[in-house]
Amino acid sequence: MAPKARLFLFSLAIYVALLSGSNISAASARTIPHLHASKSSSSASDDACVCDASRFQELGLEMKEFAYCDASLSYEVRVKDLVDRMTLEEKARQLGDTATGVERIGLPKYEWWSEALHGVSNTGQPGSLGSFFDDEIPGATSFPTVILTAATFNESLWKTIGQVVSTEARAMHNLGHAGLTFWSPNINVARDPRWGRTQETPGEDPLVAGKYATNYVRGLQDVEGSDLTTNLNSRPLKVAACCKHYAAYDIESWLGSNRFHFDSKVTEQDMRETFLSPFEMCVKDGDVTSVMCSFNRINGIPICADPQLLKNTIRGEWDLHGYIVSDCDSLEVMVDGHKWLGDTPEDAVAQALKAGMDLDCGYKIGSFYGNYAASAVAQGKVREAEVDKALKNLYTVLMRLGYFDGSPQFQSLGKADVCSEEHIELAAEAARQGIVLLKNENETLPLNSGEIKTIAVVGPHANATKVMIGNYAGVPCRYVSPIDGFSAFGKVEYERGCADVACKNESLIFPAMRAAKKADATVIVVGLDLSVEAEGSDRVDLLLPGYQTQLIKQVASVSRGPVILVVMSGGPVDISFANNNPKIGAVLWAGYPGEEGGRAIADVVLGKCNPGGRLPLTWYGADYVDMLPMTSMLLRPIDSLGYPGRTYKFFNGSTIYPFGYGLSYTQFNYTLKSSQRSLDIKLHKLQHCHDVNYNASAYKPRCPAVLIDDLKCDDNIEFEVEVKNVGRRDGSDVVMVYKVPAEGIVGAPTKELIAFQRVFVAAGESEAVKFVVNACKSLGIVDYAAYHLLPAGRHTIVIGDGAVSFPVSINFKQ
Ligand SMILES: *[C@@H]1O[C@H](CO)[C@@H](O)[C@H](O)[C@H]1NC(C)=O
Ligand SMILES: *[C@@H]1O[C@H](CO)[C@@H](O)[C@H](O)[C@H]1NC(C)=O
Ligand SMILES: *[C@@H]1O[C@H](CO)[C@@H](O)[C@H](O)[C@H]1NC(C)=O
Ligand SMILES: *[C@@H]1O[C@H](CO)[C@@H](O)[C@H](O)[C@H]1NC(C)=O
Ligand SMILES: *[C@@H]1O[C@H](CO)[C@@H](O)[C@H](O)[C@H]1NC(C)=O
Ligand SMILES: *[C@@H]1O[C@H](CO)[C@@H](O)[C@H](O)[C@H]1NC(C)=O
Predict the structure, then answer these.
(1) Looking at ligand 4, which residue's alpha carbon is closest to its atom 8?
(2) The CATH number of the domain covering residues in 3-35+424-657
(3) CA-closest candidate to residue 439, choices 543, 578, 551, 607
(4) Catalytic residue among 327, 347, 417, 783
(5) Among 617, 576, 464, which Cα is nearest to 529's?
(6) 526 with 566: CB under 8 angstroms?
(7) Helix 155-174 crosses helix 206-221 at what angle (to 10 degrees)?
(8) HEC-encoded secondary structure of 639-679
(9) Measured from the CA of 479, which atom of ligand 1 is nearest?
């Protein structure tokens, strides 16, 4: 017991220091290992930018002779000068993630691959020039995994996290520990609850995914004051982000299907409405500088070789200012996995270049572009001009990043800006805001900290550390595990209850029961980890592994005090047994809560904060996975096969918890203060009525719809909701706004999220929350033919779970 006791005292010290809210003094900071908030500012690097006269001199070159270094010229002219100086072979070698550079003309090596999904990570090319940690920079702030951050439904938080991550990234770059191009975020819609990478994503709703992408990308990329720059080809960048994996990618490895061979059979309706929608928002609203094409095929065609999806859509329709990169080894997968058109490597390279893929990440055997682009040109399969075009896209991004000319505004960032106290606090705050209260019978929570002296903290995740940072994590500043977190509030009795997450036998359950019998309260921390859901592996069921359920039931049955169940997972878990168990008073979902996760969980349980997170996923019952294979891509139910629909928009069965669910320690009441009820749109003679499929029994308006492309779409619908906190505690509420399309439209979603806003309301007070939604964006539908239509008729706007709703009628007048 001695080591344990020491641990508790020690974590208490950390915790008190952080809670105090004041600056950690130099002395206390030194007592905290892994907290690298050293104030000794070793800031700007000696690493010069590319266009540095002394660098050229060392290479025996005269910088003046290289127009690409002439800052008085436009990026366009400079980039062309740079590319024109290279031989074909040299050009090819710059098209892989590890660009070799061309010493002859003063161009250094560059590693394009760094990751920053929820903090700067070292995931990427092993031992590369990308991001890495060592004694100088031992860690970076590790935020909750995205699925939990999404659950905050707090757009400003999403952006702030992006800003903090890019500050740490820039600081690491200054110290030679990171590149400037980060292949994050992952914004694939989580279509199936079994998907192993759900934890990396903002969940199942395309609007939430798109808003998350926009905010996180703007946080990463935007340089203060430059977000209004009109020339997007020269808009400066803090770091460059990348929205991935484009598109209809959400299968890892499931019963013989895997991402390297999978052909997603999707409809154009689902593409437009669901799979492409977050990417469109990421490019148009976020102005992201990169999109990554995924491994899979869509309706037979490998995405990285599809000019319609890359060149025409991302660059053409959405107007990307940046580059398109392959997922790592996508071209090798095209040749060896998909055996696409019997391709040689040169064929694959030619097809991808022509489709608009600019950069080729090669992981296993190096970049196909690097190795084969020159021979593809020599064999007459692709024009050299396509190579030039790709390079220009790439170098324009590096110009905007200050890679050539330096970035004075970021030069002072250094070691003290990584894992600073403020950043660590934001990681804790994100977890507190995201944690979802799923059950709270008889107001079991919050526990009264005055009455709780001993807390049994049991379960396989009771001492979670690495588990809390999930996928695509680097090295965190430190960990605050659940037992660390709770030890700030009382004496913790810790028992694992299971040897690990797999929990293969019952041998450790008895000691956990013994701890629960004695303690004033019992917290059981269970769930999944990367052995169950991860990149490369999907789940086969929605249950807790092994004997975890048994552990929960037995511990609950003997607990002396109230029992709180905490679930860590990315995807949903069928915990209906816990909902129905009267001994279990409260249930929390904590996603994978990041390096400070244990602190956030304890703060919620003990009432230091009031939970306001909402589920960004439908929590289906375990039988859902027996109803349809993971490989079925359609969102709508398939009656002939008996498949239910996917996501809250199309699934009409019963759930464990619905999308958007989440309780609070207080109650909120909504009152509609004002609303606009109808919109009359006068059509001119070139605006035609478009047909819509209605059920035979339904009323169909005479002019059923108009193509959104034909409308000006400058009509907004405005309404105001008063949110009253009618309970006794301050708290934050997420006001979710759905539309229900006019009754009878065949194939329309049951409902669809059109807006959300998180709002803080003090106990007894009210806040007016105003919404202004664009009529086309919010009331539009995508029909079976993939037209985007504004349907006439009586639609309904529903606030929250339906206590407040009102109709909006659209009428077209010819
Ligand atoms: C909790 O986990 C950490 C990291 O794995 C380990 O060092 C520590 O000993 C564990 N604590 C207890 C009380 O077992
Ligand atoms: C229970 O499982 C653990 C870990 O898997 C193993 O080490 C132990 O031998 C098992 N005990 C019994 C009684 O099977
Ligand atoms: C809640 O209160 C009711 C009525 O007092 C009681 O029957 C039930 O067991 C309580 N549930 C919990 C979880 O404490
Ligand atoms: C759910 O959808 C199916 C297929 O469209 C339909 O047959 C069934 O009646 C619906 N169930 C409910 C509860 O609405
Ligand atoms: C909340 O609103 C409902 C209906 O809108 C009303 O019946 C109820 O009295 C309200 N509760 C409080 C505490 O204001
Ligand atoms: C949203 O997050 C920001 C940043 O942490 C925070 O200041 C704000 O209070 C949050 N909003 C609500 C309503 O919780």
Answers:
(1) 652
(2) 3.40.50.1700
(3) 578
(4) 327
(5) 464
(6) yes
(7) 40
(8) HHHCECCCHHHHCCCCEEECCCCCECCCCEEEEEEEECCEE
(9) 4
Residue nearest (by alpha carbon) to ligand 2 atom 14: 505
Best residue among 726, 729, 806 to mutate for probing ligand 5's pocket (most ligand atoms within 8 Å of CB) is 726
Q: Which residues of the chain have pLDDT under 50?
A: 1-46
- The domain locations on the chain are 3-35+424-657, 67-410, 668-813
Note if 715 is an active site residue: no
Task: Tell me the ligand closest to 580's alpha carbon.
Answer: 3
User: Does ligand 2 come within 6 angstroms of the Cβ of 507?
Assistant: yes
- 461, 482 Cβ separation under 8 angstroms: yes
Which of 765, 767, 764 is CA-nearest to residue 720?
767
**Closest ligand to Cα 653:** 4
Which residue's CA is the nearest one to ligand 2's atom 1? 505
* Cα–Cα distance, 789 to 773 (Å, whole number): 16
Q: Record the tokens describing residue 55, joined without a space.
A: 């660098």
Q: Taking a C-beta distance cutoff of 8 angstroms, is the pair 437, 588 a contact? A: yes
Ligand 6 near 154 CB (within 6 A) = yes
Ligand 3 centroid to Cα of residue 441, in Å, is 7
Distance of CA 706 to the CA centre of its chain: 34
Q: What is the pLDDT of residues 232-253, one digit of tens each?
A: 999 999 999 999 999 999 999 9
Q: What is the CATH number of domain 67-410?
A: 3.20.20.300
Q: How far apart are CA 262 and CA 298, in angstroms?
A: 9
Return the number of other C-beta atoms located less than 10 Å from residue 343's C-beta. 19
For the chain, how many helices (H) and strands (E)?
23, 29
Q: Which H or E run contains 75?
A: helix 75-84
Closest ligand, as measured to the CA of 498: 2
Give residue 503 CA to ligand 2 midpoint distance, Å. Answer: 9
Residue nearest atom 3 in ligand 2 by C-alpha distance:
499
505 lines ligand 2 (CB under 6 A): yes
CA distance 210 to 282: 6
Distance CA 728, CA 61 (A): 72
Q: What per-residue confidence (pLDDT) applies to 27?
A: 32
Rounded distance between C-alpha atoms, residue 388 and residue 541, angstroms: 48
- The most distant pair of C-alpha atoms in the chain lies apart, rounded to whole Å, by 85
Which of 14, 465, 468 most suits a substitution to test ligand 1, by most atoms within 8 Å of the C-beta? 465
Atom of ligand 6 nearest to the CA of 759: 13
Task: Give me the pLDDT at residue 36, please.
Answer: 29
Q: Which two tokens stand for residue 248?
A: 């209809």
Instruction: Give the pLDDT of residue 123.
Output: 82
Per-residue model confidence (pLDDT) at position 554: 98
What separation in Å is there between the alpha carbon of 604 and the centre of ligand 3?
21
Q: Is the distance from CB of 790 to CB of 711 less than 8 angstroms?
A: yes
Say what the pLDDT of residue 620 is.
98
> Could you tell me where the beta strands, DSSP code E, fall in 73-153?
98-99, 110-111
Both tokens assigned to 808: 């909006």
The partner residues of 723 in beta bridges, in order of sequence, read: 670, 767
Q: Taken in order 551, 552, 553, 558, is the CA torsion positive or negative? A: positive
Element (H, E) at 27: helix 26-30
Check residue 41 and give its pLDDT. Answer: 34
Contact 348, 340 (CB under 8 A): yes
Q: How far is the CA of 669 from the centre of ligand 5 (A)?
A: 6
Using an 8 Å Cβ cutoff, are 357 and 306 in contact? Answer: no
- Nearest Cα to 606, choosing from 452, 762, 454? 452
Indicate whether residue 441 lines ligand 3 (CB < 6 A): yes
Q: Are 166 and 224 in contact (CB under 8 A)?
A: no
Say which amino acid occupies 566: V
Q: How many residues does the chain have?
A: 814
CATH architecture for segment(s) 668-813: Sandwich (2.60)
Distance (Å, whole) CA 43 – CA 45: 6
Q: Which ligand is nearest to the CA of 640?
A: 4
